Amino acid sequence: MSRFPHLRQDFAASLVVFLVALPLCVGVAVASGVPAELGLVTGIVGGIVTGLLPGSSLQVSGPAAGLTVLVFEAVSEFGLPALGVIVLAAGLLQLLMGALKLGRWFRAISLSVVEGMLAGIGLVIIAGQLYAAAGLKAPASGLDKILGLPAAAVDAIGSPGAMASLAIGAGTVAVMVGWTKLPKKARTVPGALVAVIVATVVATVFSLPVATVEVNGLIDSLRLPGADALGGLATPALLGTILAFTLIASAESLFSAAAVDRLHDGPRTRYDKELMAQGAGNALCGVLGALPMTAVIVRSSANVAAGARTKASRVLHGVWLLLFAALLPAALALIPLPALAGILVHAGWKLIPFRGVTSLWRAHRGEALILVVTAVAIVVVNMFEGVLIGLALSVIKTAWETSHIKLEVIDKGAGPIQARLSGNATFLRLPKILDSLEALPQDRPVELDTSGLHHLDHACRTALDSWAERHSAADTEPVKFTALVKAASPEPV
Known about the structure:
The chain has a 4-stranded mixed beta sheet, with helices on one face. It folds into 2 domains: 7-357, no CATH class; 405-482, STAS domain (Transcription Regulator spoIIAA), CATH 3.30.750. Strand 5 (446-456), helix 21 (458-471) and strand 6 form a beta-alpha-beta unit. It has helices at 7-31, 36-52, 68-78, 80-99, 111-133, 142-147, 149-157, 160-179, 191-205, 218-221, 227-231, 236-261, 271-288, 297-305, 312-327, 337-351, 354-363, 365-380, 383-402, 430-438, 458-471; strands at residues 61-62, 294-295, 405-410, 417-425, 446-456, 480-482. The longest helix has 26 residues, at 236-261. By secondary structure, the protein is of the alpha/beta class. Pfam families: Sulfate_transp. Keywords: Membrane, Transmembrane, Transmembrane helix.
């Protein structure tokens, strides 16, 4: 025991994380349109392989609800055989970015964009899984999923089988929500697992006409990338999907790492190494044809709350998943699909930061707008382009704010008018600067104090010179500049 002083705590924590991960691995796989076993494979790799690697000691990796929409779209467009190629390429890119020490740069992504991305994913997951809960086929696009819900509700009401399926899904959500109200000791067993067990028992005892998980066997579900799938790497659309997987999985993992670091006082995450650990895990998942992985905040927080002290807990949770997949695969065939849909609806709801949007609107309306626009863009367009729109808005907002400038005019009624510029004079605010200066009386001398400027770009310097020449042309004293800074020139970083 001296070599493993925390084995007891880590062993207990690993069982808790296993129980949390099991229904989520299966649910994410089914919602992604792939065999349930592939979700378990990703959970196993995330625990045993990524769990052993350096980076973050208590963060737990596996298939994530945040990538469900992207995986479903990729499988629908390119087919299941291409999924392994996409995940493999994304993993190799993550390894490269980690080796180039780019991991820390993901922390510079606006939090509003990340939260908007998760909110958009949550909305699409909820809408799509409501169809699955009723045993109906969901439309392809996120917007069609939402717009089609009224018609789907009408169809479900007219079908006894759909109503039974909806009852199982709604009951699953109710058990999960109610479980959080119980005393802490009772909540040692995860609510998601309890909800799945209850739904399975009810569906079996009452012989309800609901669909259950299709079991293919662990080995039969593995799909190593073939030559045809590898040949698709020359397709621009496939390359764009790989880039989307890489950026979104990396951002989600590293933001999760930052959140998990706030939950414990142990060793801090080494972001570049964590990115490489995620890359190694995804590369192996790609070789096996499994789902992509990210660090998952639900499993990670459960790991910390259960008292884990070292990475042994997350490795052991992967071992338990492997034993379950190898010894009890038939148990999956008993799980009702609407129960898994209920778990995903609950997970999607938790991705939407309702309270965060309200508080953000009060303090930083621009950031709140970026969050909402990103979420809506993901629903209306797609995941990748929605995130790009959010990033573009974030850059524009930052550029606009950093170009803040103030013009203060002092006119004592006689003598020269004193004008003082302060802030950052860039081309973005040039119209405002010129409008204010050109509004000054043409027949009065002007003293322009620019000592308060932190930055003056070439466009603004040229415009100020031109304005001064025009103002001085009508028999007026030349404009007097005070401490005019030089136009900005590039400086080494």
